[in-house]
């Protein structure tokens, strides 16, 4: 089996399902998808996944509406999956796809985001962030902390801008 990597187009396949035979790409339509795969054996931890997803889980892929693999994750059979993290990553991908921002470590919807370093034009900054942003003095390596998380720090280079907006307010 070929290795699936970030940025690859997710393979299309025909699969028997509770809805009959489906073609994955046609079934997915223009939605974000989380595809789980696992070996044929079942473990007690995999069975706990039934309560969250109605499927057992070992590896997974987050696939965007263009069928591009955006995230891969694999857990050992002894460890349960963090579905809140999967949803957090989807929120981050959707936000960063639609705005020129990046999400720092431990980001959650509503937390500070970082404006991408390539966005330096003051007019575009004002247009994209009409409610404002915090411009931090450029120091080569800036130390940014998420205000609501106190001790959590993240390192970013070059970019002197940070925006604090809830996703719905960025649009």
**Fraction in beta strands:** 25-35%
The total count of strands amounts to 11
Q: What class, by secondary structure content?
A: alpha+beta
Helix count, DSSP H or I runs of 4 or more residues: 6
User: Helix content range of the residues, please?
Assistant: 10-25%
Poorly predicted residue ranges: 139-171
Strand order of the largest sheet: 6-7-11-8
* Element pattern in H and E: EEHEHHEEHEEHEEEEH
- Measured distance between first and last alpha carbons: 41 Å
Principal-axes geometry comes out as elongated
What radius of gyration results from the CA coordinates?
A: 19 Å
Average pLDDT: 74
* Largest beta-sheet details: 4 strands, antiparallel
Description of the structure:
- With 171 residues, the protein is an alpha+beta fold.
- It is built from six helices and eleven strands.
- A hairpin with a 2-residue loop joins β1 and β2 (20-23).
- The protein is elongated.
- The N and C termini lie far apart (41 Å).
- 13% of the residues are buried.
